[in-house]
Amino acid sequence: MENNLTKRELFVNKLNEIFGDKAEYVLNAISGPRYETFRINSKKSGVDKVLEKLRETEFEITEGPLAGSFVNLSSLHGLKISQTNLFKNGVVYVQGLSSMLGVNVLDPKPGEKILDLCASPGSKTSYIASLTDEPENIYAVENNSTRFYSMKKNLLSQGYSHVITIKSNAVGLSTRYPQICGTFDKVLVDVPCSNEGNVRFSDEGSFKFWNPKLPKKISMLQKKILASGYNMLKPGGLMVYSTCTYSFEENEAVVNWALKKFSDLDMVEIKTGIKKFTLVQGLTLHKGDKLDERISRASRILPDKYFDGFFIALLRKQLSPAYPARK
Ligand SMILES: C[S@@+](CC[C@H](N)C(=O)[O-])C[C@H]1O[C@@H](n2cnc3c(N)ncnc32)[C@H](O)[C@@H]1O
């Protein structure tokens, strides 16, 4: 009797269906909080100096599990890093580790031309810019006006005013900007999603807007944005498709659709170097739906005290298509 279940019961059932014997682990994790995590903007200050300042203000800080990441373990009166002047002045940047991991998988390198298709608030864009140190090769697209300008402000405060920002719908970008279509070495497709990976039962606000009907609806937009990312990518280029959600419809099903549609698209194995038990392979079978086996190369990041729930697929547009893409 689905209709008599509370929203929370529906959510728990969904996690059981997706994660099977790992569901209890996930449920335990989201019943507790997650640490605040951050990275230091080396354009503005040296790491040791920043850590010294934070420790002087009685933050207990430790290195995080990803290179360049730090964890706020505790602080005086529960003060957050995001409330400090160091954050306000762009010296430190508060960012979830799963979000950082999405960029690590893309592995941006100096000299590469990189497109971030759904970019606001610019957390991943600025991280990409910090890793390549060539912001003039980084393009950030965002369609929502308010979010577009807050992203610009955010990039500016971190010292990345040279990132090329485009206020546009990601869908149909290749028609609007033919001059840059098919020219990117790497594309990040961090789509709008149902945000289930950020749910913590200890924080009511994080669950308030959960709607079991959203995943199916939003997956249509996600497919269009992924197709746009494919068009912008040059042959041989790499693309990360990521969400901060658990829904099969928004994750594996979208990637499966893209693999069917674009014959020259392939999945690349993800190597993260982080402790194994936070990762599981992408699903290739869900409620009787059998998908392309290559989707097992995608990763689901399980939530814990450090990470939020996340999905990452790494795709490569091959140098020459095996046969023309299906219409
Ligand atoms: C998951 S958030 C991106 C977070 C961002 N990548 C970061 O790490 O800071 C998705 C973003 O996509 C934007 N968006 C939604 N639909 C879009 C579209 N059709 N074209 C471009 N951006 C879109 C949303 O406004 C939102 O800012």
UniProtKB/TrEMBL annotation:
Tell me the Gene3D superfamilies matching this sequence: Sun protein, domain 3 (3.30.70.1170), Vaccinia Virus protein VP39 (3.40.50.150)
Annotated S-adenosyl-L-methionine binding lies at 142, 190
Q: Name one GO biological process term.
A: RNA methylation
Q: Which keywords has UniProt assigned to this entry?
A: Methyltransferase, RNA-binding, S-adenosyl-L-methionine, Transferase
Q: Where is the SAM-dependent MTase RsmB/NOP-type domain?
A: 26-318
Residues forming the catalytic site? 244
Any single GO molecular-function term of the entry would be: RNA methyltransferase activity
UniProt-listed CDD domains: AdoMet_MTases (cd02440)
Q: Which family does it belong to?
A: Belongs to the class I-like SAM-binding methyltransferase superfamily. RsmB/NOP family.
Q: What is this protein called?
A: SAM-dependent MTase RsmB/NOP-type domain-containing protein
What organism, scientifically named, is this protein from? candidate division WWE3 bacterium GW2011_GWC2_41_23
Please name the taxonomic classification of the source: Bacteria, Katanobacteria
